[in-house]
Amino acid sequence: MSDLHDVLILGSGPAGLTAAIYAARASLDPLVIEGEPSSTGDQPGGQLMLTTDVENFPGFPDGIMGPELMMQFRKQAERFGAILKTEKATRVDLTEQPFRVWIGDPEAAEPTYRAKTIIVSTGATALMLDQPNEQRLLGHGVSTCATCDGFFFRDHDIAVVGGGDSALEEATFLTKFAKTVTIIHRRDELRGSKIMQDRAFANPKIKFLWDTEVTDVLGDQSVESLALRNNKTDETSELAVTGLFVAIGHRPNTDLFQGQLAMKDNGYLITEAPSTRTNVPGVFACGDVQDDTYRQAISAAGSGCSAAIDAERWLEANE
User: Which range among 47-56, 142-151, 293-302 has the greatest average pLDDT?
Assistant: First the structure.
């Protein structure tokens, strides 16, 4: 029979590692299943592992590289006794106590781990364009977060891909820094709400390219231009920009929990605010897997703290 853990944490971004720090300091010996690198960009440490300079995380007035910040999180969790495993959960069973988690073969008779409580911090993955150089230039002009990276594009010409509220909000925010922002949309009308459309149309810094798709991101060390194609005329062109913000949505990493944890229509886990409790007693969720509003490292870390405290209190009340 697999070992029984007081707290098992799925995910190792800011939320998961903060939960690990707090759970370890509470002598709960947390086990963190931090995930494995994948072809979709998911990897231990979460989305900050794909970020270069982080300037908006408190305590680092001169900024810090995303991977370095996550290494600091990791070291702090391990210092207090958290155990981190570079593994990927392939199946979870939350129907009875103790909860069961499989690594490797999901059909194996016995689970790899058992846990009294589980903290879900598997995050969300930004949807990308799947163009040839997009991943190579991620963090070097390609970004999925205007709030995180907009400051670096002061007085630059940049572009935003998308036509929904997220894209319009990102574009409007980026006009605080950029010289121009070009919204590239594959259709001839936007999907965003009327108020967001009105703001974008009224902003003199925002331009629009309709019926257009990005076919490649060009540049050696950083973004220099975009290869474009008009999907009605097939005409190709090139747009000189130094930044590309992809705002076509996020996908929460919740496939493991389908049919077991309550979710919103968009797949994000539902928690009982102001707590991190899910609909299953003893299971808690924090970070981007349940946050489709803020999606910031600092808010994820805060919810990780809450999840660890919620798990500690649940254990005290049920043992």
Answer: 293-302
Helix ranges (DSSP H) in 155-259: 165-174, 194-202
Smallest CA-to-CA distance from 227 within 35, 235, 50, 183 is with 235
Please say if 148 is a catalytic residue. yes
HSE-CB for 153 with a 13 A CA cutoff? 34
Specify whether 149 is catalytic: yes
Concatenate the DSSP letters of all residues of 62-103 into one string.
T-EEHHHHHHHHHHHHHHTT-EEE---EEEEE-SSSSEEEEE
Domains of the chain: 3-126+250-318 (3.50.50.60), 142-246 (3.50.50.60)
**305 included as an active-site residue:** no
3-state SS assignment for residue 313? helix
Q: Give the chain's radius of gyration (CA, Å).
A: 21
Nearest-angstrom CA–CA distance, 221 and 130: 19
Annotated catalytic residue, options 53, 145, 216, 292: 145
Q: What are phi and psi of 20, to 5 degrees?
A: -65, -40
The distance in angstroms from the start CA to the end CA of the chain is: 21
The rounded Cα 42 to chain-centroid distance in angstroms is: 9
What is the pTM (predicted TM-score) of this model? 0.81
Nearest Cα residue to 269 out of 61, 87, 120: 120
